[in-house]
Each structure stands twice: as structure tokens, then as C-alpha cells.
């Protein structure tokens, strides 16, 4: 055991390239065919032989295998590393993304990447709790404390200030690569026992259900091998490993979800979004969103003189706008953010029973906040990326030994900031549920433990998705969810206050064990 | 003898009502349904065996003969101890809550680090009436050196098989024996735990004396049980059975359920001072149990053995 720990730490720290090379060579010894045959035998009546074989080949055992080391998977790892009850866990992270193998390095001079997330105050406090926010602060990030939402019809507008909800900020815009890199740096700087497998999950064998552990099996067989309570993962590079718990953090096309047989429901919105970075002549300190006939356009501050554009439209328009020349595109953007499609609004929407008349307990709007025109865009500063919009939700998040987090459980929109905030909420809730399970000696692969995570997250996520989708349907079939997502993220606490409060409570460090006081 | 029989029927009646009360509506598998009244059915069979004042071979033979008679049911019971949706669901659902109590009281008493994943490292614990090991396994994961004993052989077998699945729990020592037998063998433990057992034993006061004898001086004893107020749930059914033909001679005899006050008293007589007590309350909305001051239904007591 000691030896294993030592080895894995070495793998994790520096040698993993070498080791993986070794492992690749090892793969040639036992041919692909042999691996596959024995693999498919696993769980069948003759696994005992196989297990001993595996043991002699030193198949590693882990407490948790995180499949997918994206933002959400890494957030889970960081959270586990930061809590006293979970920091001893032996964790494998499986992801072929080369970013996981190298120390993150970002050049501050480069213009921001168009893939950004609007992180909520809840996410910020979660990052602070696990110790990752300090790394974000070393890189580009843009807090904003104002936002303005208006409509092309000129009917009205809404402006929000952070002070209105007694907050310092409404949110912070951070490039996805910075969020990811900060989580990586954070975990590198702990002595958490993690092993990174630079590979992909190809198959998964779950242990038989307890009902097949009948007494009859003992009469004819030697004592059940201990692997019988572990899930076995096989990777595309021929490696395999055993684990008590498999966490599917492998994104919207989750392989874990597929292999575990979880169903999903969802639909595509036959809408696309264009994202890109743009430049102004002045710094933008406000988040802007305007509802246009085909969908909303959002302009998010990115720090310096940069902003991020997220613009929803029908697929044909998006193809055109991706291909048109830069000057024309910039003109289109300015048009969409100013007089295009209709006049400037003259009266505040607040109290008109219109779009934003959702419960806003205790919120008083600054009445003297006048409508403003967003800063002009002068230059396109990145490529234009186009993504289709869709909504997808897994009917279950957990089964014995398997749990889904992040986009694997719910995809609200490939681009929307709220998506990843929901994922961070999942990561935090799951790590806390695992800690609580460990506190009372539970087997962390036990579905009764995992169900607590599902019970906590599913209603929150469904409610969020329902609000977003409901809005999309209520206001216009043309309106993609993105506007709502952005609105939800940006309007923050009062727009979706009950949900928000619960997210904040997850994220604000209420890591209380279920002990009585 | 008559009162013993009555107790037996009463237990069945009570467990039936508990199941109706607690079991989730989507309890489905029809072939398992007849077992559902058996929440404590193993216990009732064992309580009849342990009810024999003579704890020598007689009782055990009876247990094993029971096993012989029910060979066909054997495997299905093996499943159900560890089927978290099965007849023992209440114990599974309650488990984290009672373990939270155990963790908090033991960490405090033995000055163990409450932030440790294995705070019970170095503690010798016996789980008396361990059943399938629902409590023993978490205790082992929390670092304790665990001995699990149960009067029913098949429970011990099941506990064994299940514990062997995980190297951490395979270290548990399981024995088919009783607390009394362990006392005869002069075994001692830092912590003696008997959860949901005392209501099934013939003589609670004697049982507590045995538990005390197993506890080292200044060691801990933890007992949980159902308060006699639960009688209200069972009364109707029991009364029906009275009407059938189970009329007891002394009505006050028919329940061996203890009130918290009675438990404190008999533990005190056994040289154990109860230091902490909590109730379990069930929230039907969340399907979870939590600890509370309300000890009117299920309760758990933590006591320490006085140094003579
Ligand atoms: C192309 C794209 C652009 C996006 N742009 C934005 C944006 O601008 N703003 C925004 O807020 N959100 C954006 N999103 C959404 C946001 O990135 C997601 O909500 C967030 O990334 C979810 O994080 P995740 O960790 O759950 O999944 P992902 O970020 O999708 O991470 C999944 C990880 O799993 C790995 N993986 C996949 N399959 C396997 C396998 N079989 N074995 C091992 N590893 C596997 C992948 O390599 C990846 O690292 C975008 C999403 C996509 C796909
Ligand atoms: C309701 S179960 C409780 C099981 C376990 N303690 C738990 O709480 O998860 C009661 C158990 O006590 C056992 N039992 C009853 N009387 C006993 C006795 N006198 N000695 C040992 N075990 C006994 C039964 O066999 C049964 O497994």
C-alpha cells in the first residue's frame, strides 16, 4: 500500500510521461486482443483467475476515478484535496487533454480567448474555499458590478448595480482556460495523491449487484475477491484501473453516462451562438445584454479594453456572420448593440410587469440609473466561433459506483456561463457528500451516499434549466436560452433568488457534518 | 412462557407497523413483499433463542435448525440485510445519523481528531447483535478494530461475506455468540455498542450488565432502541391479536421496550453512567433521519463505565 502510494505520487508529480510510455510498452506484451477478451470476461463466472492476473500486473486501485479533467472534474479534485476528511483519498484523473500534463502558462499580453465563463459570487467563494481563486487573481479576470438589459423594441430597460443587492460584484468574467489552469495549479500545490492518466475511458465494468452475492456462490468458490466491489475502467491506451467510485465529469457527450446506461432528455434549439473577443477604445466595466428578434447579444467585460461577445441567431445568419469580413462584422455588432432593429428605450422596465418582474425580494433599483449605450467595438480580437444551442439533462445522476457532474449531467448551453456554475455547484456538493459519507464510515461507492448528492443537485439544476427553458419558450421561440442564461447569471441573486440562495449556501463553505451541535 | 410468546407476536406486529410507516411507497418487488413485515424477524427468531435462560448449546442449535428449515429463504435473506431498499431499509437510512452520534460522542470521550477520516484508530469496539454488519462495517472504515457478534448464525455468515468485499472491512472479526458468552470468555472492549437489540432480548437488565462487563473502565457503551411510546402504533394490531387468543397474564409484562428513563436506570445499576442521549426523528419528506432532542420514538444513549 505504502509502495503504491509512493509510486502514484511519483507518476503524478513528474514521471508520468515516462511511466505512460512504459505502460504503452507493457500494452504490447499483452496484446490488444488478449486485453479485450479478458476484459469482456470480467464479471462473468470466471473472474477469479483474471483478478490474480491483474494483481500481478499491478492494476492500480483508487478510491475515486474522475473521468474528464475539465473545469468541473478539476474543481472536484481540488475540493477533495482541500477538505480534511477527503484529502487522503487516492484519486485517478483520466483525460487526454494535454493541458493536464503541463504547468499552466498564460501570456497576459495575448488577447483573451473567446471561451469565457461568467462566474457567480457563489462560484467565486467556492474557488476561494478550495484555494484556487488566488491563481485566478494572478491572471486576467474582470469583475463587474453593473449590468444593463434592454430590448430592441424600445419598450424599456433594466439596470442593476451590485450595491442594489448588497454585493461587491455581480460576477466575474474569466477565460475557461484560466479557470481550468487555476484549478490545476491549485491541486499541484497540495500533496493530494492523484494520478493523471493521459488517455480516454473506453469501457467500464461495474461490479455485480448485491443480489448476486448470494450465499450459494461461497460454497463452490473461494472467498470473493476484493475487486468484486470495485468498478473496473479500461482506457484507450490499454491501461486499466479499479475504483470504488467513478465520477463522470466528461462533458456533454459523456462516455460514463453512456456506459452506465443513464438516459437523457433534451432538445436542440436550432439556434447558434457566435462567440468572439472584441476591442474598444476604453475599458468596459459593465455587462450588457440586448434582446434582438433572433436572439440576444451579450457584451461582457474582459479587462483592459477587451470584451467578449456572445450573440445568438439562427444557423444561417451565424454562418454568414462567421464568414463576413471583419469590418462588416464589427459594424453588425455595433448596430446590434445600439440603434439596430429599434430605438433606445426611454423608460425603465422595472415595475412594468414585463420581462423582469420576477420576485425580487428586498431589491431596490437605483431609480436614477439612466439608459446607456455600450462602448463602441472597434476591432475583432479573436476568431469567431460558432456553437449550436441545446438542452440536455440526465434522468439520473447516480447509480451504484457511478455519479455524473457538470455537463455530463446537464448541458444547458455549450457557451453559457451558467452551465459551468451549475457544474461547480455539483462538484462542491459531491465532494461535501463524500466527506459526510466518510465521516460516518460509509462506502463511498454506495448509492445511498450518492443519492444525497442527487437529491441536493437535481432539483436545483432542473429548476435552473426549467427557468431558462421556460423563459426561452415564454418570450419567443426565437430567443435562445443564452439570453436567459446570461440574464440569470448576470441578474444574479434577485432574479432567481431562491435557487441562487441555495447555490450560495453550497458554495459559501457550509461544510457542516451532519453532527448535532 | 406465555408472555414470551406474546412478546414474539408483538415484535412482529410492531415491525409490521414500522414498515408500513417508513417503507417508501415504491417498494416494489412483489416476491419480496411477504418479507417486508420481517424488519426484525431475524431478531425475533433470535430473541426466542436468546430468550432461553440457558445460553448453552440449546439456543444455538435452535438457531441453526431454523436455518435448516428455511434453507430456501436463506439466500434471499442474505440479500436483504444489504439491500438498502429491502426490509432493513430503516436501519440503512438511519445508519449515517446514528454513526454521526457515535462519531461525535466517541471522538469527544476518547479525545480523537474529529476531522480525521479514521478517528477510531486504536479503539477496540464490539458490535453486539451486529446482524448483517450494517454498523460494523462503517466502524471499521472509521479505523476501529471491530468485533461483530450475533446470536443468529446466518446473520454472521452474511456479515462475513459482505465484509470480505472490501479489504478495509475484511478485518472485522465476526462471531456467532452472545454478549454473555463474551463475558464468560473475559473479553474487554473500549467501546461496546448494541443498536436496536435490547428490545429483542429476554432480560434487558441482565443484558446491560453483560455489556458493562465487556466494557473497560472508563470505556463507552452505546445503546439505541425504540421508546415504549411506539406502542401506540402497535396497539391496534396487538389488541387484535389479543382478541384472537394471546391475552397475557400481566399486561405490563408484554412489552420489553424501554423508556429512556428506564434505560438510564438499568445502565446505572450496571455501573454505566449515561452522559448523552439523542432522539432520532424521521422526516417523511426528505426520507432522512436526523438527531434531535425528541426521544419519544427512537433514541440512542451514550454512557461511560464507572471506574470502580
Ligand atoms: C466547444 C465549447 C465551447 C464552450 N464555450 C463556453 C463559453 O464560452 N462560456 C461558457 O460559459 N461555457 C462554454 N462552454 C460550456 C462550458 O465549457 C461547460 O459548461 C463546461 O466546460 C462544463 O465543464 P465540464 O468539466 O463538465 O465538461 P467539459 O469542459 O466538456 O470537460 C470534459 C472533459 O472530459 C474529457 N473527456 C471527454 N470524454 C472523455 C473520455 N471518454 N475519457 C476521458 N476524458 C474524457 C475532455 O477531454 C474534457 O477535458 C463551452 C463548451 C464547449 C464544448
Ligand atoms: C434489529 S437487528 C439490529 C442489527 C444491528 N445492530 C443494526 O442496528 O444494524 C437485531 C439483531 O440483534 C440480534 N440479537 C437479538 N438478540 C440477541 C442476543 N441476545 N445476543 C446477540 N444478538 C442478538 C439479532 O439476531 C439481530 O441481528
Automatic annotation (TrEMBL), chain A:
Residue ranges, annotated region (Disordered): 207-226
Membrane topology summary: Peripheral membrane protein
Ranges of Polar residues composition bias in the record: 214-226
One Pfam short name: FAD_binding_3
GO CC field: extrinsic component of mitochondrial inner membrane
Molecular function terms, GO-annotated: 2-methoxy-6-polyprenolphenol 4-hydroxylase activity; 4-hydroxy-3-all-trans-polyprenylbenzoate oxygenase activity; FAD binding; oxidoreductase activity, acting on paired donors, with incorporation or reduction of molecular oxygen, reduced flavin or flavoprotein as one donor, and incorporation of one atom of oxygen
Cofactor(s) demanded: FAD
Associated pathway: Cofactor biosynthesis; ubiquinone biosynthesis
GO aspect biological process, one term: xanthophyll biosynthetic process
Enzyme Commission numbers on file: 1.14.15.45, 1.14.15.46
Catalytic activity: a 4-hydroxy-3-(all-trans-polyprenyl)benzoate + 2 reduced [2Fe-2S]-[ferredoxin] + O2 + 2 H(+) = a 3,4-dihydroxy-5-(all-trans-polyprenyl)benzoate + 2 oxidized [2Fe-2S]-[ferredoxin] + H2O; a 2-methoxy-6-(all-trans-polyprenyl)phenol + 2 reduced [2Fe-2S]-[ferredoxin] + O2 + 2 H(+) = a 2-methoxy-6-(all-trans-polyprenyl)benzene-1,4-diol + 2 oxidized [2Fe-2S]-[ferredoxin] + H2O
Domain FAD-binding: 240-337, 383-460
Subcellular location: Mitochondrion inner membrane
Keyword Mitochondrion: yes
Predominant place of localization: mitochondrion
Family according to the record: Belongs to the UbiH/COQ6 family.
Function: FAD-dependent monooxygenase required for two non-consecutive steps during ubiquinone biosynthesis. Required for the C5-ring hydroxylation during ubiquinone biosynthesis by catalyzing the hydroxylation of 4-hydroxy-3-(all-trans-polyprenyl)benzoic acid to 3,4-dihydroxy-5-(all-trans-polyprenyl)benzoic acid. Also acts downstream of coq4, for the C1-hydroxylation during ubiquinone biosynthesis by catalyzing the hydroxylation of 2-methoxy-6-(all-trans-polyprenyl)phenol to 2-methoxy-6-(all-trans-polyprenyl)benzene-1,4-diol.
PANTHER family xref list: UBIQUINONE BIOSYNTHESIS MONOOXYGENASE COQ6, MITOCHONDRIAL
Subunit record text: Component of a multi-subunit COQ enzyme complex.
Name assigned to this protein: Ubiquinone biosynthesis monooxygenase COQ6, mitochondrial
Organism per entry: Quercus rubra (Northern red oak)
Lineage: Eukaryota, Viridiplantae, Streptophyta, Embryophyta, Tracheophyta
TrEMBL record, chain B:
Keyword Lipid biosynthesis: no
Matches recorded under InterPro entries: SAM-dependent_MTases_sf (IPR029063), UbiG_MeTrfase (IPR010233)
Cofactor(s) listed in the protein's UniProt record: Mg(2+)
Keywords: Magnesium, Membrane, Metal-binding, Methyltransferase, Mitochondrion, Mitochondrion inner membrane, S-adenosyl-L-methionine, Transferase, Ubiquinone biosynthesis
Pathway: Cofactor biosynthesis; ubiquinone biosynthesis
PANTHER family: METHYLTRANSFERASE, UBIQUINONE BIOSYNTHESIS O-METHYLTRANSFERASE, MITOCHONDRIAL
Assigned protein family: Belongs to the class I-like SAM-binding methyltransferase superfamily. UbiG/COQ3 family.
Protein name: Ubiquinone biosynthesis O-methyltransferase, mitochondrial
Gene: COQ3
